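Supplementary Note 3. Input sequence used for the single-chain structure prediction.
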Amino acid sequence: MPSRPNLFAAAFLRNGSSWTGAEVDLSEAEIADDVGDAVQEALGLTGDELAVLCVEVEDEWFAIVRYDGEEDPRVFLSDAQAATDSLGELFAELAGVAVDKETPDLGIRPAGDFELLADFGMSAEELLELSMEEGMLPADTLSVVAERLSFGDELDRLR
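The predicted structure, written as discrete structure tokens, is reproduced below.
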């Protein structure tokens, strides 16, 4: 398996109006299902909970994955070009994004489910704007998202 880039991954479990977080080890993830298994293990999920996984890879890209009970995961990928590394490929697959690795870099192109946080008050437009804002690093964007969803303190604790 090729070496993985520097990454930070944490998942947050919604418990009523509060959230609990845990760091998630994605070092063994080889297929898309492994990501969900790692989240389940880190949070001790039993099946019908709402969990949000936040992943940042160096200063390059981030992913947000929403697990809602038995439904298929919903994924937002900050840049479809992330699929050029093995971990990025997993998230592109989860997001249902096919990336042409032969195409030259066309700049930042968010992909996946832009509405996955809409019921938390973060519109697709806002998520897109945040992910494409000049000078915003993935860690900064995820901090804003975490604050809006009320798990900012948990994210800071885990970093």
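Residues 7-158 form one domain. The chain has a mean pLDDT of 90.
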